[in-house]
Here is the input.
Amino acid sequence: MRADQPAARQILGERPQLIGEPGLLNDATSSGRRQAVELLLRLGAEVNALAADGATAPDQLAWRGNRELAQVLIAAGAQPVRDRTHDSMPTGWGDYAGNESLRDYLLNECADALELVATGMTDRVELLMAAEPAAVEQRDAAGNGVLHYLRESAPDLQRMLTALFAAGADPGASNQRGHTTLVHAQARGADRVAAAL
Here is the structure.
């Protein structure tokens, strides 16, 4: 795809349904073609649309580790963390692909308490809890809250707990299976988390 706006507009005039095809934006993002990505966004491509394979353009950029395109997509409204009904999120794609710096960039752009706690982003959790204390009430589809997402590998677990408790996190809160955060931690073998709770 060339970043030729007049030609693209002519094609879209003949086949307007093309701009709704997320595969175009995903392909341009995956191959690092900034001009094509910018053109598609100007023409109305939906930055967070799911392609047939379940991936979004933000997923593709996280997988490829392209910080420059990340900035373009974030400016266009890309969601670094999306609805948890899908199998993965852009931050997870970046983590799995070994693109930790891009994952961290995306996490710095998000306000998803569950994802921030799960990835041990203590500084961001503190900022989020101070700015939006209600974020401590966030739950996933299984009823797990922020304390259920604590990880054994969290580098500053005590500081994270302090921020969460100050915002009102309830250690006695249960998920849909009736597991409190303590029971959940013990079931996962997260001894350090269990001891801190």
